[in-house]
Protein backbone atom coordinates (compact mmCIF):
# COMPACT_ATOMS: atom_id res chain seq x y z
CA UNK A 1 0.00 0.00 0.00
CA UNK A 2 0.97 3.62 -0.41
CA UNK A 3 -0.83 6.37 1.53
CA UNK A 4 -1.95 9.45 -0.41
CA UNK A 5 -4.37 12.33 -0.04
CA UNK A 6 -6.35 14.75 -2.21
CA UNK A 7 -4.04 16.81 -4.39
CA UNK A 8 -1.23 14.29 -4.26
CA UNK A 9 0.35 12.54 -7.22
CA UNK A 10 2.77 9.63 -6.95
CA UNK A 11 4.75 7.62 -9.49
CA UNK A 12 4.49 3.84 -9.44
CA UNK A 13 6.02 1.09 -11.61
CA UNK A 14 2.89 1.12 -13.83
CA UNK A 15 2.63 4.92 -14.18
CA UNK A 16 1.15 7.28 -11.59
CA UNK A 17 -1.92 8.08 -9.48
CA UNK A 18 -3.32 11.53 -8.78
CA UNK A 19 -5.98 11.95 -6.07
CA UNK A 20 -8.63 14.50 -7.09
CA UNK A 21 -11.42 16.24 -5.22
CA UNK A 22 -14.95 14.91 -5.43
CA UNK A 23 -17.87 16.84 -4.01
CA UNK A 24 -19.90 14.25 -2.13
CA UNK A 25 -20.24 12.92 1.40
CA UNK A 26 -17.42 10.53 2.23
CA UNK A 27 -19.55 8.18 4.32
CA UNK A 28 -16.67 7.86 6.79
CA UNK A 29 -16.43 10.22 9.78
CA UNK A 30 -13.57 12.64 9.06
CA UNK A 31 -13.12 11.20 5.57
CA UNK A 32 -13.09 13.05 2.28
CA UNK A 33 -14.69 12.04 -0.99
CA UNK A 34 -12.20 11.81 -3.83
CA UNK A 35 -11.63 10.70 -7.38
CA UNK A 36 -8.58 9.20 -9.04
CA UNK A 37 -6.60 9.83 -12.17
CA UNK A 38 -4.57 6.74 -12.94
CA UNK A 39 -1.99 6.53 -15.66
CA UNK A 40 -1.65 2.79 -16.24
CA UNK A 41 1.12 1.95 -18.68
CA UNK A 42 0.39 5.06 -20.74
CA UNK A 43 -3.43 5.02 -20.63
CA UNK A 44 -4.91 7.76 -18.43
CA UNK A 45 -8.22 7.06 -16.70
CA UNK A 46 -10.21 9.52 -14.59
CA UNK A 47 -12.52 7.80 -12.10
CA UNK A 48 -14.64 10.68 -10.80
CA UNK A 49 -16.24 8.66 -8.01
CA UNK A 50 -19.47 10.00 -6.53
CA UNK A 51 -19.31 13.69 -7.32
CA UNK A 52 -21.19 16.71 -8.48
CA UNK A 53 -20.07 18.84 -11.38
CA UNK A 54 -17.36 21.30 -10.31
CA UNK A 55 -15.43 23.91 -12.23
CA UNK A 56 -11.99 22.53 -11.43
CA UNK A 57 -12.74 19.63 -13.76
CA UNK A 58 -11.44 22.05 -16.41
CA UNK A 59 -8.14 22.22 -14.50
CA UNK A 60 -7.96 18.42 -14.39
CA UNK A 61 -8.50 18.42 -18.16
CA UNK A 62 -5.61 20.85 -18.59
CA UNK A 63 -3.27 18.95 -16.26
CA UNK A 64 -3.98 15.52 -17.68
CA UNK A 65 -4.47 14.03 -21.14
CA UNK A 66 -7.45 11.85 -20.16
CA UNK A 67 -8.15 8.83 -22.33
CA UNK A 68 -11.24 7.58 -20.45
CA UNK A 69 -13.44 9.51 -18.00
CA UNK A 70 -15.75 7.43 -15.81
CA UNK A 71 -18.52 9.81 -14.75
CA UNK A 72 -21.62 9.33 -12.59
CA UNK A 73 -24.92 10.14 -14.29
CA UNK A 74 -27.44 8.97 -11.67
CA UNK A 75 -28.45 12.40 -10.32
CA UNK A 76 -30.00 12.82 -6.85
CA UNK A 77 -26.75 11.75 -5.05
CA UNK A 78 -24.25 12.69 -7.79
CA UNK A 79 -24.32 14.76 -10.96
CA UNK A 80 -26.99 13.83 -13.43
CA UNK A 81 -26.76 13.37 -17.18
CA UNK A 82 -26.85 17.06 -18.16
CA UNK A 83 -24.17 17.99 -15.62
CA UNK A 84 -22.09 15.01 -16.75
CA UNK A 85 -22.25 16.34 -20.33
CA UNK A 86 -20.81 19.60 -18.98
CA UNK A 87 -18.11 17.61 -17.15
CA UNK A 88 -17.10 16.02 -20.46
CA UNK A 89 -16.80 19.51 -21.98
CA UNK A 90 -14.52 20.58 -19.10
CA UNK A 91 -12.39 17.42 -18.94
CA UNK A 92 -11.96 16.90 -22.70
CA UNK A 93 -11.40 13.13 -22.49
CA UNK A 94 -10.98 10.94 -25.54
CA UNK A 95 -13.87 8.68 -24.40
CA UNK A 96 -16.44 8.49 -21.59
CA UNK A 97 -17.98 5.66 -19.57
CA UNK A 98 -21.15 6.50 -17.58
CA UNK A 99 -21.50 4.96 -14.12
CA UNK A 100 -23.51 5.11 -10.91
CA UNK A 101 -27.00 4.86 -12.40
CA UNK A 102 -29.97 2.44 -12.52
CA UNK A 103 -29.17 0.56 -9.32
CA UNK A 104 -32.49 1.67 -7.80
CA UNK A 105 -35.38 3.91 -8.94
CA UNK A 106 -34.16 7.23 -7.49
CA UNK A 107 -31.09 7.16 -9.78
CA UNK A 108 -32.75 5.68 -12.86
CA UNK A 109 -31.29 7.26 -16.00
CA UNK A 110 -30.93 6.50 -19.68
CA UNK A 111 -27.27 5.97 -20.55
CA UNK A 112 -28.34 5.91 -24.20
CA UNK A 113 -29.69 9.48 -23.93
CA UNK A 114 -26.45 10.56 -22.21
CA UNK A 115 -24.43 8.89 -24.98
CA UNK A 116 -26.43 10.68 -27.66
CA UNK A 117 -26.05 14.08 -25.94
CA UNK A 118 -22.29 13.74 -25.50
CA UNK A 119 -21.61 12.37 -28.96
CA UNK A 120 -23.80 14.97 -30.71
CA UNK A 121 -22.60 18.00 -28.77
CA UNK A 122 -18.95 17.11 -28.14
CA UNK A 123 -18.10 14.32 -30.62
CA UNK A 124 -16.63 12.25 -27.78
CA UNK A 125 -17.43 8.53 -27.90
CA UNK A 126 -19.39 7.09 -24.98
CA UNK A 127 -19.04 3.42 -24.04
CA UNK A 128 -22.00 1.98 -22.12
CA UNK A 129 -20.82 -1.03 -20.13
CA UNK A 130 -23.60 -3.35 -18.95
CA UNK A 131 -23.27 -5.27 -15.67
CA UNK A 132 -20.99 -8.24 -16.26
CA UNK A 133 -19.71 -6.82 -19.54
CA UNK A 134 -16.02 -6.00 -20.05
CA UNK A 135 -14.37 -3.17 -21.91
CA UNK A 136 -10.72 -3.51 -22.83
CA UNK A 137 -8.95 -0.22 -22.39
Helix content: 10-25%
Q: How large a portion of the residues is in β-strands, by DSSP E?
A: 15-25%
What is the mean predicted local confidence, pLDDT?
Answer: 96
Silhouette: globular
* H/I helix tally: 3
Task: Write out the strand line-up for the largest beta sheet, numbering strands in chain order.
Answer: 1-2-3-4-5-6
Distance between the termini: 24 Å
Q: Got a strand count?
A: 6
Q: Please trace the helix and strand order, writing H or E for each element.
A: EEEEHEHEH
Characterize the main sheet: 6 strands, mixed
Low-confidence stretches: none
Rg over C-alpha atoms, rounded to the nearest angstrom: 15 Å
The class by helix and strand makeup works out as alpha/beta
Compact overview of the structure:
With 137 residues, this protein is α/β, with parallel strands linked by helices. The protein contains 3 helices and 6 strands, in the order ββββαβαβα.
Question: Describe it for me?
Answer:
- This protein is an alpha/beta fold and 137 residues long.
- The protein has three helices and six strands; from the N terminus they run ββββαβαβα.
- The protein has helices spanning 57-63, 81-91, 111-122; strands at residues 9-12, 15-21, 34-40, 43-47, 68-72, 95-99.
- Strands 1-2-3-4-5-6 form a six-stranded mixed sheet.
- A hairpin with a 2-residue loop joins strand 3 (34-40) and strand 4 (43-47).
- Helix 1 (57-63) packs parallel to helix 2 and helix 2 runs parallel beside helix 3 (111-122).
- The longest helix is centred in the C-terminal third of the chain and has 12 residues, at 111-122.
- The chain starts with 8 loop residues before the first strand and ends in a 15-residue tail after the last helix.
Amino acid sequence: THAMHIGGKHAFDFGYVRITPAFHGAGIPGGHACGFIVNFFGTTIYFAGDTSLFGDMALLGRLENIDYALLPIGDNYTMGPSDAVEAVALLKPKAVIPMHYNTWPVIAQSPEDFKQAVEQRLAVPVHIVAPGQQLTL
